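Ticket #4471: structure export looks truncated?
Reporter: QA, pipeline team
Priority: medium

Steps to reproduce: submit the single chain below to the structure queue and open the exported record.
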Amino acid sequence: MSSTKKVTPSGIVTTEANERVIPASRRADGSLRKERRVRPGFVPQEDIIRYKNKFVAEREPDPTPTVEPPKTKAQKKNAKRNAKKKDGVKVAEEEKELEMPANEIDQEIDNLQDKVSNITISSEDTQSFSDSTVITIEQLEATAKKIKALEKKIRQIERIKEKEARGEYYIDLFQGKFTMSRFVRASKFRHVFGTAAKYENCFDNVKVSANAWDTNLVKVNSLFVAINWNAGGGGAFAVIPHKNVGKISDGIPLYRGHTAPVLDTDFATFNDYVIASGSEDSKVMIWNIPEELGEPESPDIEPVAKLNGHGRKVGHVLFHPVADNVLASTSADLTVKLWDIEKGQEKQTLQGFVDFIQSISWNYNGSLLATTCRDKKLRIFDVRSGNVIKEASSHQGIKGSRVVWLGDTERIVTTGFSKMSDRQLFLWDTANLDKPLKSIMVDTSSGVLMPFYDNDLKILYLAGKHILDILYYEFENDELFYLTEYKSSEPQRGMAFLPKRSVNVSECEIDRAYKVSSNTIEPISFVVPRRSDAFQSDLFPPTFSGEPALTADEYFSGKNAKPKTISLEHGFQAKEKKEFVSSAPKEEENVVPTPKTEKEYQDAYHQLRQENDDLRNQLAQRDVTIRALTIQLEQLKAGSS
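Actual output as written to the record:
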Protein backbone atom coordinates (compact mmCIF):
# COMPACT_ATOMS: atom_id res chain seq x y z
CA MET A 1 0.00 0.00 0.00
CA SER A 2 1.26 3.45 -0.87
CA SER A 3 2.15 5.97 1.80
CA THR A 4 -0.82 7.56 3.56
CA LYS A 5 -1.93 11.08 4.19
CA LYS A 6 -4.76 10.68 6.70
CA VAL A 7 -6.43 7.97 8.81
CA THR A 8 -10.02 8.42 10.05
CA PRO A 9 -11.39 7.01 13.35
CA SER A 10 -13.06 4.16 11.42
CA GLY A 11 -9.70 3.12 9.87
CA ILE A 12 -10.25 4.54 6.34
CA VAL A 13 -6.98 5.76 4.81
CA THR A 14 -6.57 8.53 2.24
CA THR A 15 -3.63 7.83 -0.06
CA GLU A 16 -1.38 10.32 -1.84
CA ALA A 17 -3.49 9.72 -4.93
CA ASN A 18 -6.43 11.05 -2.91
CA GLU A 19 -8.14 7.67 -2.85
CA ARG A 20 -10.01 6.44 0.21
CA VAL A 21 -9.30 2.77 1.01
CA ILE A 22 -9.53 0.26 3.82
CA PRO A 23 -5.97 -1.07 4.11
CA ALA A 24 -5.09 -4.76 3.88
CA SER A 25 -5.03 -6.76 7.12
CA ARG A 26 -4.87 -10.33 8.40
CA ARG A 27 -7.79 -12.27 9.73
CA ALA A 28 -7.70 -14.25 12.97
CA ASP A 29 -7.03 -17.49 11.04
CA GLY A 30 -3.93 -15.95 9.37
CA SER A 31 -5.46 -15.41 5.92
CA LEU A 32 -4.91 -12.08 4.15
CA ARG A 33 -7.70 -9.51 3.79
CA LYS A 34 -7.12 -7.47 0.62
CA GLU A 35 -7.18 -3.68 0.41
CA ARG A 36 -10.62 -2.34 -0.54
CA ARG A 37 -11.66 0.96 -2.06
CA VAL A 38 -14.35 3.03 -0.35
CA ARG A 39 -17.23 4.36 -2.43
CA PRO A 40 -17.00 8.14 -2.90
CA GLY A 41 -19.33 10.03 -0.56
CA PHE A 42 -19.67 7.19 1.95
CA VAL A 43 -19.03 8.28 5.60
CA PRO A 44 -19.12 5.62 8.35
CA GLN A 45 -20.90 6.39 11.63
CA GLU A 46 -17.56 6.62 13.45
CA ASP A 47 -16.35 9.41 11.13
CA ILE A 48 -19.38 11.71 11.54
CA ILE A 49 -18.23 14.93 13.20
CA ARG A 50 -20.41 15.70 16.20
CA TYR A 51 -21.21 19.28 17.19
CA LYS A 52 -19.55 20.47 20.39
CA ASN A 53 -20.07 23.86 21.97
CA LYS A 54 -16.75 25.68 21.82
CA PHE A 55 -17.49 27.54 25.06
CA VAL A 56 -17.97 24.25 26.89
CA ALA A 57 -14.66 23.06 25.54
CA GLU A 58 -12.95 26.23 26.79
CA ARG A 59 -14.28 25.65 30.29
CA GLU A 60 -12.92 22.12 30.45
CA PRO A 61 -9.46 21.85 32.08
CA ASP A 62 -6.58 21.01 29.77
CA PRO A 63 -5.27 17.48 30.36
CA THR A 64 -1.65 16.99 31.31
CA PRO A 65 0.43 16.29 28.15
CA THR A 66 1.05 12.60 27.44
CA VAL A 67 -1.21 11.64 30.34
CA GLU A 68 -4.59 10.11 29.67
CA PRO A 69 -7.25 11.71 31.92
CA PRO A 70 -8.79 9.33 34.44
CA LYS A 71 -12.08 7.76 33.53
CA THR A 72 -14.55 8.48 36.32
CA LYS A 73 -17.97 7.00 36.61
CA ALA A 74 -20.86 9.30 37.54
CA GLN A 75 -21.91 8.79 41.13
CA LYS A 76 -25.46 8.03 42.07
CA LYS A 77 -27.35 10.05 44.67
CA ASN A 78 -26.73 7.57 47.51
CA ALA A 79 -23.06 7.28 46.60
CA LYS A 80 -22.65 11.04 46.76
CA ARG A 81 -24.36 11.14 50.15
CA ASN A 82 -22.14 8.36 51.49
CA ALA A 83 -19.04 10.14 50.20
CA LYS A 84 -20.06 13.31 52.02
CA LYS A 85 -20.58 11.32 55.22
CA LYS A 86 -17.11 9.80 54.89
CA ASP A 87 -15.59 13.24 54.33
CA GLY A 88 -17.44 14.55 57.40
CA VAL A 89 -16.19 11.66 59.55
CA LYS A 90 -12.64 12.28 58.32
CA VAL A 91 -12.85 15.98 59.17
CA ALA A 92 -14.28 15.20 62.62
CA GLU A 93 -11.45 12.74 63.31
CA GLU A 94 -8.90 15.37 62.28
CA GLU A 95 -10.56 17.92 64.57
CA LYS A 96 -10.51 15.50 67.49
CA GLU A 97 -6.87 14.64 66.81
CA LEU A 98 -5.91 18.31 66.62
CA GLU A 99 -7.62 19.47 69.84
CA MET A 100 -5.01 20.96 72.18
CA PRO A 101 -4.77 23.86 74.63
CA ALA A 102 -4.59 27.15 72.78
CA ASN A 103 -1.74 28.48 74.94
CA GLU A 104 0.46 25.44 74.05
CA ILE A 105 -0.01 25.50 70.28
CA ASP A 106 3.16 27.53 69.48
CA GLN A 107 5.30 25.48 71.87
CA GLU A 108 4.01 22.25 70.27
CA ILE A 109 5.07 23.44 66.82
CA ASP A 110 8.60 24.31 68.03
CA ASN A 111 9.04 20.97 69.82
CA LEU A 112 7.91 18.94 66.82
CA GLN A 113 10.12 20.85 64.42
CA ASP A 114 13.14 20.35 66.72
CA LYS A 115 12.50 16.60 66.90
CA VAL A 116 12.29 16.26 63.13
CA SER A 117 15.39 18.39 62.46
CA ASN A 118 17.52 16.50 65.04
CA ILE A 119 16.88 13.04 63.58
CA THR A 120 19.95 11.55 61.80
CA ILE A 121 20.82 8.16 60.32
CA SER A 122 24.32 6.80 61.11
CA SER A 123 26.49 4.78 58.74
CA GLU A 124 26.25 1.84 61.14
CA ASP A 125 22.53 1.58 60.37
CA THR A 126 21.59 3.28 63.63
CA GLN A 127 19.52 6.34 64.32
CA SER A 128 20.63 8.91 66.90
CA PHE A 129 18.68 11.68 68.57
CA SER A 130 20.02 14.80 70.31
CA ASP A 131 19.45 13.12 73.67
CA SER A 132 21.83 10.24 72.62
CA THR A 133 19.06 7.68 72.43
CA VAL A 134 20.08 4.84 70.00
CA ILE A 135 17.56 2.89 67.95
CA THR A 136 18.48 -0.29 66.07
CA ILE A 137 17.80 -0.89 62.38
CA GLU A 138 14.84 -3.11 63.23
CA GLN A 139 13.04 -0.08 64.70
CA LEU A 140 13.86 2.19 61.76
CA GLU A 141 10.62 1.52 59.88
CA ALA A 142 8.47 2.31 62.92
CA THR A 143 10.50 5.43 63.62
CA ALA A 144 10.12 6.61 60.02
CA LYS A 145 6.35 6.30 60.33
CA LYS A 146 6.46 8.35 63.51
CA ILE A 147 8.52 11.03 61.78
CA LYS A 148 6.00 11.14 58.95
CA ALA A 149 3.12 11.48 61.43
CA LEU A 150 4.90 14.30 63.27
CA GLU A 151 5.53 16.18 60.03
CA LYS A 152 1.87 15.74 59.08
CA LYS A 153 0.80 17.09 62.46
CA ILE A 154 3.02 20.14 62.00
CA ARG A 155 1.45 20.82 58.60
CA GLN A 156 -2.04 20.45 60.07
CA ILE A 157 -1.28 22.83 62.94
CA GLU A 158 0.16 25.39 60.55
CA ARG A 159 -2.99 25.14 58.42
CA ILE A 160 -5.08 25.75 61.54
CA LYS A 161 -3.10 28.89 62.33
CA GLU A 162 -3.52 30.12 58.76
CA LYS A 163 -7.28 29.50 58.83
CA GLU A 164 -7.56 31.12 62.24
CA ALA A 165 -5.89 34.23 60.80
CA ARG A 166 -8.49 34.24 58.01
CA GLY A 167 -11.34 33.85 60.52
CA GLU A 168 -12.24 30.29 59.53
CA TYR A 169 -11.50 28.89 63.01
CA TYR A 170 -12.38 30.22 66.42
CA ILE A 171 -10.99 29.61 69.90
CA ASP A 172 -13.52 28.13 72.28
CA LEU A 173 -12.89 30.32 75.33
CA PHE A 174 -14.76 27.95 77.64
CA GLN A 175 -12.79 24.83 76.64
CA GLY A 176 -9.50 26.54 75.73
CA LYS A 177 -9.27 24.47 72.53
CA PHE A 178 -9.11 25.05 68.82
CA THR A 179 -12.36 24.00 67.19
CA MET A 180 -13.61 24.12 63.61
CA SER A 181 -16.78 26.15 63.03
CA ARG A 182 -19.01 26.60 60.02
CA PHE A 183 -20.38 29.74 61.73
CA VAL A 184 -16.96 31.41 61.81
CA ARG A 185 -17.04 32.57 65.44
CA ALA A 186 -17.87 31.36 68.93
CA SER A 187 -21.44 32.05 70.03
CA LYS A 188 -23.93 30.33 72.30
CA PHE A 189 -26.61 31.20 69.73
CA ARG A 190 -25.06 29.17 66.89
CA HIS A 191 -27.76 26.54 67.36
CA VAL A 192 -30.85 28.74 67.74
CA PHE A 193 -33.64 27.09 65.79
CA GLY A 194 -37.20 28.11 65.12
CA THR A 195 -40.16 25.76 65.47
CA ALA A 196 -43.62 26.59 64.18
CA ALA A 197 -46.58 25.71 66.37
CA LYS A 198 -48.82 22.82 65.41
CA TYR A 199 -51.98 23.65 63.52
CA GLU A 200 -54.19 23.24 66.60
CA ASN A 201 -52.07 25.89 68.39
CA CYS A 202 -52.44 28.49 65.62
CA PHE A 203 -55.18 31.07 65.03
CA ASP A 204 -57.17 30.15 61.92
CA ASN A 205 -59.94 31.85 59.93
CA VAL A 206 -58.39 35.28 60.55
CA LYS A 207 -59.80 38.04 58.32
CA VAL A 208 -56.57 39.99 57.81
CA SER A 209 -56.94 43.56 56.57
CA ALA A 210 -56.24 44.03 52.86
CA ASN A 211 -55.12 47.66 53.30
CA ALA A 212 -51.91 48.49 51.43
CA TRP A 213 -50.40 50.68 54.18
CA ASP A 214 -46.92 49.44 55.19
CA THR A 215 -47.48 48.13 58.71
CA ASN A 216 -46.83 44.91 60.61
CA LEU A 217 -50.60 44.19 60.86
CA VAL A 218 -50.23 42.38 64.21
CA LYS A 219 -49.19 43.26 67.78
CA VAL A 220 -48.70 40.93 70.74
CA ASN A 221 -48.47 41.32 74.51
CA SER A 222 -48.33 38.80 77.34
CA LEU A 223 -52.05 37.97 77.14
CA PHE A 224 -53.46 38.97 73.75
CA VAL A 225 -52.89 39.12 69.99
CA ALA A 226 -54.24 42.14 68.06
CA ILE A 227 -54.79 41.96 64.30
CA ASN A 228 -56.06 44.54 61.80
CA TRP A 229 -59.39 43.11 60.61
CA ASN A 230 -60.94 43.19 57.16
CA ALA A 231 -64.43 44.50 57.94
CA GLY A 232 -66.97 46.71 56.26
CA GLY A 233 -68.68 49.74 57.71
CA GLY A 234 -65.53 51.57 58.78
CA GLY A 235 -62.34 50.34 60.39
CA ALA A 236 -62.00 47.49 62.88
CA PHE A 237 -59.45 45.27 64.58
CA ALA A 238 -59.69 42.16 66.74
CA VAL A 239 -58.03 41.28 70.05
CA ILE A 240 -57.76 37.54 70.75
CA PRO A 241 -56.52 35.93 74.00
CA HIS A 242 -53.57 33.56 73.61
CA LYS A 243 -55.64 30.68 74.94
CA ASN A 244 -58.29 31.02 72.21
CA VAL A 245 -56.31 29.17 69.54
CA GLY A 246 -57.95 27.27 66.72
CA LYS A 247 -60.58 28.47 64.29
CA ILE A 248 -61.82 31.99 65.03
CA SER A 249 -65.58 32.46 64.87
CA ASP A 250 -66.98 34.61 62.07
CA GLY A 251 -68.98 36.57 64.64
CA ILE A 252 -66.03 37.55 66.82
CA PRO A 253 -66.57 40.85 68.70
CA LEU A 254 -64.56 43.57 66.96
CA TYR A 255 -63.16 46.87 68.13
CA ARG A 256 -65.14 49.36 66.08
CA GLY A 257 -65.25 53.12 66.34
CA HIS A 258 -63.09 54.30 63.48
CA THR A 259 -64.89 55.40 60.34
CA ALA A 260 -62.03 54.28 58.05
CA PRO A 261 -59.61 51.31 57.99
CA VAL A 262 -57.38 50.77 61.02
CA LEU A 263 -53.70 51.07 60.02
CA ASP A 264 -51.82 50.27 63.24
CA THR A 265 -52.31 49.18 66.86
CA ASP A 266 -50.09 48.97 69.95
CA PHE A 267 -50.60 47.50 73.41
CA ALA A 268 -49.93 49.73 76.41
CA THR A 269 -46.46 49.06 77.82
CA PHE A 270 -47.58 48.84 81.46
CA ASN A 271 -51.20 47.65 81.22
CA ASP A 272 -51.91 44.43 79.32
CA TYR A 273 -55.60 45.32 79.09
CA VAL A 274 -55.21 48.62 77.18
CA ILE A 275 -54.59 49.09 73.45
CA ALA A 276 -54.31 52.11 71.12
CA SER A 277 -55.24 52.27 67.43
CA GLY A 278 -54.63 54.66 64.54
CA SER A 279 -56.78 54.94 61.44
CA GLU A 280 -57.29 56.60 58.09
CA ASP A 281 -59.96 58.76 59.75
CA SER A 282 -57.06 60.76 61.34
CA LYS A 283 -58.01 59.70 64.89
CA VAL A 284 -56.18 57.85 67.66
CA MET A 285 -58.40 55.78 69.96
CA ILE A 286 -57.75 54.10 73.32
CA TRP A 287 -59.59 50.90 74.28
CA ASN A 288 -60.07 48.71 77.35
CA ILE A 289 -59.76 44.97 76.64
CA PRO A 290 -62.16 42.51 78.36
CA GLU A 291 -60.57 39.47 80.00
CA GLU A 292 -62.58 37.02 77.88
CA LEU A 293 -63.10 37.02 74.13
CA GLY A 294 -66.88 37.14 74.29
CA GLU A 295 -69.50 35.04 72.57
CA PRO A 296 -70.17 35.24 68.82
CA GLU A 297 -72.49 38.09 67.83
CA SER A 298 -71.65 39.92 71.07
CA PRO A 299 -71.76 43.73 70.89
CA ASP A 300 -68.62 45.34 69.50
CA ILE A 301 -66.24 47.10 71.90
CA GLU A 302 -66.33 50.89 72.13
CA PRO A 303 -63.28 53.15 72.74
CA VAL A 304 -62.75 54.86 76.11
CA ALA A 305 -60.87 57.85 74.65
CA LYS A 306 -60.51 59.56 71.28
CA LEU A 307 -57.47 61.72 70.56
CA ASN A 308 -58.03 64.36 67.87
CA GLY A 309 -55.23 66.49 66.47
CA HIS A 310 -53.89 64.95 63.30
CA GLY A 311 -55.08 66.39 60.00
CA ARG A 312 -54.66 63.24 57.92
CA LYS A 313 -54.49 59.47 58.38
CA VAL A 314 -52.59 58.06 61.36
CA GLY A 315 -50.05 55.48 60.20
CA HIS A 316 -48.26 54.34 63.38
CA VAL A 317 -48.86 54.32 67.14
CA LEU A 318 -46.15 53.39 69.67
CA PHE A 319 -46.22 53.49 73.49
CA HIS A 320 -43.31 54.83 75.54
CA PRO A 321 -40.90 52.22 77.02
CA VAL A 322 -40.45 53.92 80.44
CA ALA A 323 -43.20 56.48 81.15
CA ASP A 324 -46.79 55.41 81.80
CA ASN A 325 -49.62 56.56 79.49
CA VAL A 326 -47.30 58.26 76.96
CA LEU A 327 -48.05 57.52 73.31
CA ALA A 328 -46.43 58.59 70.01
CA SER A 329 -48.41 58.69 66.77
CA THR A 330 -47.37 59.48 63.19
CA SER A 331 -49.57 60.92 60.48
CA ALA A 332 -49.66 61.69 56.79
CA ASP A 333 -49.88 65.35 57.84
CA LEU A 334 -46.08 64.96 58.27
CA THR A 335 -46.01 65.21 62.06
CA VAL A 336 -45.35 62.99 65.06
CA LYS A 337 -47.49 63.80 68.09
CA LEU A 338 -46.86 62.89 71.74
CA TRP A 339 -49.91 62.26 73.91
CA ASP A 340 -50.77 61.89 77.57
CA ILE A 341 -53.59 59.40 76.99
CA GLU A 342 -54.87 59.54 80.58
CA LYS A 343 -55.59 63.27 80.28
CA GLY A 344 -56.31 63.09 76.56
CA GLN A 345 -53.84 65.90 75.90
CA GLU A 346 -51.44 66.52 73.05
CA LYS A 347 -48.09 67.30 74.72
CA GLN A 348 -45.67 67.75 71.82
CA THR A 349 -45.56 67.85 68.01
CA LEU A 350 -42.45 66.85 66.05
CA GLN A 351 -42.09 68.49 62.64
CA GLY A 352 -39.52 68.77 59.88
CA PHE A 353 -40.66 65.94 57.61
CA VAL A 354 -41.21 66.47 53.89
CA ASP A 355 -42.81 63.10 53.09
CA PHE A 356 -44.62 60.18 54.76
CA ILE A 357 -43.09 58.78 57.96
CA GLN A 358 -42.39 55.06 57.49
CA SER A 359 -41.33 53.91 60.98
CA ILE A 360 -40.41 55.14 64.48
CA SER A 361 -38.41 53.67 67.38
CA TRP A 362 -37.71 54.82 70.96
CA ASN A 363 -34.26 54.63 72.50
CA TYR A 364 -33.69 52.69 75.75
CA ASN A 365 -34.92 55.37 78.18
CA GLY A 366 -37.34 57.05 75.79
CA SER A 367 -35.58 60.41 75.63
CA LEU A 368 -34.95 60.16 71.87
CA LEU A 369 -37.04 59.01 68.92
CA ALA A 370 -35.60 57.72 65.62
CA THR A 371 -37.64 57.97 62.41
CA THR A 372 -37.32 56.90 58.79
CA CYS A 373 -39.18 58.73 56.07
CA ARG A 374 -40.06 58.35 52.42
CA ASP A 375 -37.74 61.28 51.66
CA LYS A 376 -34.90 58.75 52.35
CA LYS A 377 -33.81 60.53 55.53
CA LEU A 378 -32.99 59.12 58.96
CA ARG A 379 -33.80 61.58 61.77
CA ILE A 380 -33.29 61.52 65.53
CA PHE A 381 -35.46 63.81 67.69
CA ASP A 382 -35.10 65.11 71.21
CA VAL A 383 -38.74 64.43 71.99
CA ARG A 384 -39.38 66.99 74.72
CA SER A 385 -37.67 69.89 72.97
CA GLY A 386 -39.11 68.86 69.61
CA ASN A 387 -35.78 69.45 67.83
CA VAL A 388 -34.05 67.29 65.23
CA ILE A 389 -30.62 66.59 66.75
CA LYS A 390 -29.31 64.32 63.97
CA GLU A 391 -30.23 63.81 60.32
CA ALA A 392 -28.67 61.71 57.57
CA SER A 393 -29.34 60.26 54.15
CA SER A 394 -30.31 56.62 54.49
CA HIS A 395 -31.40 53.94 52.01
CA GLN A 396 -31.86 55.35 48.51
CA GLY A 397 -34.46 52.87 47.25
CA ILE A 398 -38.09 53.83 46.77
CA LYS A 399 -39.52 50.98 48.88
CA GLY A 400 -40.22 51.01 52.61
CA SER A 401 -37.53 51.63 55.22
CA ARG A 402 -37.61 50.62 58.91
CA VAL A 403 -35.62 51.62 62.00
CA VAL A 404 -35.02 49.96 65.38
CA TRP A 405 -32.91 51.16 68.31
CA LEU A 406 -30.44 48.55 69.57
CA GLY A 407 -31.51 48.52 73.20
CA ASP A 408 -29.27 50.24 75.75
CA THR A 409 -26.59 51.17 73.19
CA GLU A 410 -26.09 54.29 71.08
CA ARG A 411 -26.54 52.24 67.92
CA ILE A 412 -29.51 51.92 65.62
CA VAL A 413 -30.27 49.64 62.68
CA THR A 414 -32.18 50.57 59.55
CA THR A 415 -33.45 48.31 56.79
CA GLY A 416 -34.35 49.40 53.29
CA PHE A 417 -33.43 49.14 49.63
CA SER A 418 -30.69 50.41 47.34
CA LYS A 419 -31.30 52.19 44.06
CA MET A 420 -31.00 48.77 42.39
CA SER A 421 -33.64 47.33 44.78
CA ASP A 422 -31.15 45.27 46.80
CA ARG A 423 -32.29 44.76 50.39
CA GLN A 424 -29.90 46.54 52.76
CA LEU A 425 -29.08 46.51 56.46
CA PHE A 426 -27.29 49.56 57.94
CA LEU A 427 -25.75 49.86 61.41
CA TRP A 428 -25.43 53.48 62.63
CA ASP A 429 -23.63 55.30 65.44
CA THR A 430 -26.13 57.92 66.67
CA ALA A 431 -23.26 60.25 67.59
CA ASN A 432 -22.13 60.41 63.97
CA LEU A 433 -24.56 59.80 61.11
CA ASP A 434 -22.16 60.81 58.33
CA LYS A 435 -22.08 57.21 57.15
CA PRO A 436 -23.13 53.79 58.50
CA LEU A 437 -20.73 51.86 60.71
CA LYS A 438 -21.62 48.77 58.70
CA SER A 439 -23.52 48.23 55.47
CA ILE A 440 -24.80 44.76 54.55
CA MET A 441 -26.41 43.80 51.25
CA VAL A 442 -28.85 41.13 52.44
CA ASP A 443 -30.24 39.84 49.13
CA THR A 444 -32.34 40.90 46.15
CA SER A 445 -35.80 39.91 47.39
CA SER A 446 -38.63 42.43 47.15
CA GLY A 447 -40.17 42.12 50.63
CA VAL A 448 -39.72 44.93 53.17
CA LEU A 449 -37.49 43.82 56.07
CA MET A 450 -39.14 44.12 59.49
CA PRO A 451 -36.43 44.39 62.22
CA PHE A 452 -36.94 43.15 65.80
CA TYR A 453 -34.25 43.40 68.49
CA ASP A 454 -33.79 41.31 71.64
CA ASN A 455 -31.91 43.64 73.98
CA ASP A 456 -31.26 40.91 76.57
CA LEU A 457 -29.37 38.61 74.18
CA LYS A 458 -28.31 41.16 71.53
CA ILE A 459 -30.02 39.25 68.70
CA LEU A 460 -31.48 41.05 65.70
CA TYR A 461 -34.28 39.31 63.76
CA LEU A 462 -35.11 40.35 60.19
CA ALA A 463 -38.45 39.14 58.83
CA GLY A 464 -39.16 39.81 55.17
CA LYS A 465 -42.67 40.72 54.07
CA HIS A 466 -44.24 38.36 51.53
CA ILE A 467 -41.26 35.96 51.67
CA LEU A 468 -40.49 32.81 53.64
CA ASP A 469 -37.40 33.52 55.74
CA ILE A 470 -36.43 35.11 59.07
CA LEU A 471 -32.73 35.99 59.43
CA TYR A 472 -30.87 36.18 62.77
CA TYR A 473 -27.86 38.37 63.54
CA GLU A 474 -25.88 38.77 66.76
CA PHE A 475 -24.75 42.29 67.66
CA GLU A 476 -21.35 42.52 69.34
CA ASN A 477 -18.53 45.09 69.31
CA ASP A 478 -20.22 47.21 66.63
CA GLU A 479 -20.52 44.20 64.33
CA LEU A 480 -23.54 42.24 63.13
CA PHE A 481 -22.64 38.56 62.88
CA TYR A 482 -24.95 36.37 60.82
CA LEU A 483 -26.19 33.34 62.79
CA THR A 484 -28.69 31.41 60.67
CA GLU A 485 -32.22 31.67 59.28
CA TYR A 486 -35.67 30.19 59.74
CA LYS A 487 -37.64 29.18 56.65
CA SER A 488 -41.35 28.45 56.54
CA SER A 489 -43.64 27.07 53.87
CA GLU A 490 -45.88 30.14 53.57
CA PRO A 491 -44.85 33.80 53.18
CA GLN A 492 -45.52 36.24 56.01
CA ARG A 493 -47.58 39.40 55.65
CA GLY A 494 -46.70 40.74 59.07
CA MET A 495 -45.03 39.79 62.34
CA ALA A 496 -44.74 40.71 66.02
CA PHE A 497 -42.65 39.41 68.93
CA LEU A 498 -43.86 38.42 72.38
CA PRO A 499 -42.50 40.43 75.35
CA LYS A 500 -39.51 38.62 76.79
CA ARG A 501 -41.08 38.19 80.24
CA SER A 502 -43.70 35.85 78.74
CA VAL A 503 -41.50 33.24 77.02
CA ASN A 504 -41.32 29.60 78.16
CA VAL A 505 -38.17 29.62 80.29
CA SER A 506 -38.32 25.89 81.12
CA GLU A 507 -38.04 25.00 77.41
CA CYS A 508 -35.16 27.49 76.83
CA GLU A 509 -37.41 29.51 74.54
CA ILE A 510 -35.50 32.77 74.09
CA ASP A 511 -38.08 34.48 71.82
CA ARG A 512 -41.46 33.85 70.23
CA ALA A 513 -42.75 35.44 67.03
CA TYR A 514 -46.32 35.59 65.73
CA LYS A 515 -46.41 35.34 61.93
CA VAL A 516 -49.40 36.58 59.93
CA SER A 517 -50.09 34.80 56.64
CA SER A 518 -53.15 34.92 54.38
CA ASN A 519 -55.70 33.79 57.00
CA THR A 520 -53.71 32.44 59.95
CA ILE A 521 -51.52 33.65 62.82
CA GLU A 522 -48.75 31.15 63.54
CA PRO A 523 -46.55 31.24 66.69
CA ILE A 524 -42.87 30.45 66.07
CA SER A 525 -40.66 29.53 69.05
CA PHE A 526 -36.92 30.24 68.95
CA VAL A 527 -35.09 27.81 71.24
CA VAL A 528 -31.49 27.30 72.35
CA PRO A 529 -31.31 23.59 73.29
CA ARG A 530 -29.79 22.78 76.68
CA ARG A 531 -29.52 19.41 78.41
CA SER A 532 -29.84 20.72 81.94
CA ASP A 533 -33.26 21.44 83.43
CA ALA A 534 -31.80 24.16 85.66
CA PHE A 535 -32.54 27.85 85.06
CA GLN A 536 -30.23 29.13 82.31
CA SER A 537 -29.16 32.52 83.63
CA ASP A 538 -26.97 33.22 80.57
CA LEU A 539 -30.02 32.89 78.29
CA PHE A 540 -32.38 34.77 80.59
CA PRO A 541 -30.70 37.79 82.22
CA PRO A 542 -32.91 40.31 84.09
CA THR A 543 -35.43 41.63 81.59
CA PHE A 544 -38.03 44.39 81.28
CA SER A 545 -40.52 44.03 84.13
CA GLY A 546 -43.58 45.80 82.72
CA GLU A 547 -43.61 48.34 85.58
CA PRO A 548 -43.36 52.08 84.78
CA ALA A 549 -40.35 54.03 86.00
CA LEU A 550 -41.93 57.46 85.37
CA THR A 551 -45.35 59.04 85.19
CA ALA A 552 -46.36 61.06 82.15
CA ASP A 553 -46.03 64.34 84.10
CA GLU A 554 -42.52 63.43 85.28
CA TYR A 555 -41.47 62.52 81.78
CA PHE A 556 -42.74 65.68 80.11
CA SER A 557 -41.14 67.76 82.89
CA GLY A 558 -37.74 66.49 81.70
CA LYS A 559 -36.93 63.49 83.90
CA ASN A 560 -35.24 60.36 82.53
CA ALA A 561 -35.07 56.84 83.95
CA LYS A 562 -34.05 53.37 82.84
CA PRO A 563 -36.68 50.63 82.47
CA LYS A 564 -37.25 48.47 85.53
CA THR A 565 -36.13 44.85 85.24
CA ILE A 566 -37.14 41.51 86.73
CA SER A 567 -35.69 37.98 86.92
CA LEU A 568 -37.35 35.22 84.89
CA GLU A 569 -36.19 32.41 87.17
CA HIS A 570 -39.71 31.91 88.54
CA GLY A 571 -41.44 32.26 85.17
CA PHE A 572 -44.17 34.61 83.99
CA GLN A 573 -46.86 35.84 86.35
CA ALA A 574 -49.83 37.69 84.85
CA LYS A 575 -50.95 40.91 86.52
CA GLU A 576 -54.44 41.66 87.69
CA LYS A 577 -56.60 43.66 85.32
CA LYS A 578 -56.43 47.42 85.81
CA GLU A 579 -59.26 49.34 84.17
CA PHE A 580 -58.09 52.36 82.22
CA VAL A 581 -60.04 55.57 82.85
CA SER A 582 -59.39 58.65 80.75
CA SER A 583 -60.19 62.19 81.83
CA ALA A 584 -60.27 63.35 78.22
CA PRO A 585 -63.40 65.34 77.32
CA LYS A 586 -66.02 63.28 75.57
CA GLU A 587 -66.42 63.92 71.88
CA GLU A 588 -69.88 65.16 70.95
CA GLU A 589 -71.29 63.24 68.03
CA ASN A 590 -74.32 63.95 65.90
CA VAL A 591 -76.03 60.59 65.78
CA VAL A 592 -78.09 60.15 62.63
CA PRO A 593 -80.75 57.43 62.88
CA THR A 594 -80.30 54.61 60.39
CA PRO A 595 -83.10 54.43 57.74
CA LYS A 596 -85.27 51.33 58.02
CA THR A 597 -88.03 51.58 55.38
CA GLU A 598 -87.86 52.34 51.68
CA LYS A 599 -89.49 55.76 52.21
CA GLU A 600 -86.90 56.65 54.85
CA TYR A 601 -84.09 55.66 52.48
CA GLN A 602 -85.59 57.86 49.73
CA ASP A 603 -85.99 60.80 52.12
CA ALA A 604 -82.41 60.40 53.33
CA TYR A 605 -81.18 60.27 49.73
CA HIS A 606 -83.01 63.48 48.74
CA GLN A 607 -81.82 65.20 51.90
CA LEU A 608 -78.18 64.34 51.20
CA ARG A 609 -78.56 65.41 47.60
CA GLN A 610 -79.99 68.78 48.69
CA GLU A 611 -77.10 69.25 51.14
CA ASN A 612 -74.66 68.46 48.34
CA ASP A 613 -76.26 71.04 46.04
CA ASP A 614 -76.15 73.67 48.80
CA LEU A 615 -72.46 73.04 49.38
CA ARG A 616 -71.73 73.36 45.66
CA ASN A 617 -73.59 76.70 45.54
CA GLN A 618 -71.56 77.95 48.50
CA LEU A 619 -68.33 76.98 46.77
CA ALA A 620 -69.41 78.74 43.56
CA GLN A 621 -70.21 81.92 45.50
CA ARG A 622 -66.80 81.80 47.17
CA ASP A 623 -65.11 81.44 43.78
CA VAL A 624 -66.92 84.56 42.53
CA THR A 625 -65.90 86.49 45.64
CA ILE A 626 -62.27 85.38 45.28
CA ARG A 627 -62.15 86.50 41.63
CA ALA A 628 -63.66 89.90 42.52
CA LEU A 629 -61.15 90.44 45.31
CA THR A 630 -58.31 89.41 43.00
CA ILE A 631 -59.38 92.02 40.41
CA GLN A 632 -59.59 94.73 43.10
CA LEU A 633 -56.11 93.81 44.36
CA GLU A 634 -54.64 94.07 40.87
CA GLN A 635 -56.30 97.47 40.37
CA LEU A 636 -54.89 98.74 43.66
CA LYS A 637 -51.40 97.57 42.68
CA ALA A 638 -51.71 99.28 39.27
CA GLY A 639 -52.88 102.55 40.89
CA SER A 640 -50.06 102.61 43.41
CA SER A 641 -47.44 102.06 40.70
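Status: closed, not a bug. The export was complete when the record was re-opened. Leaving a note from the reviewer for reference: Confidence is low (pLDDT under 50) at residues 123-132, 167-183.
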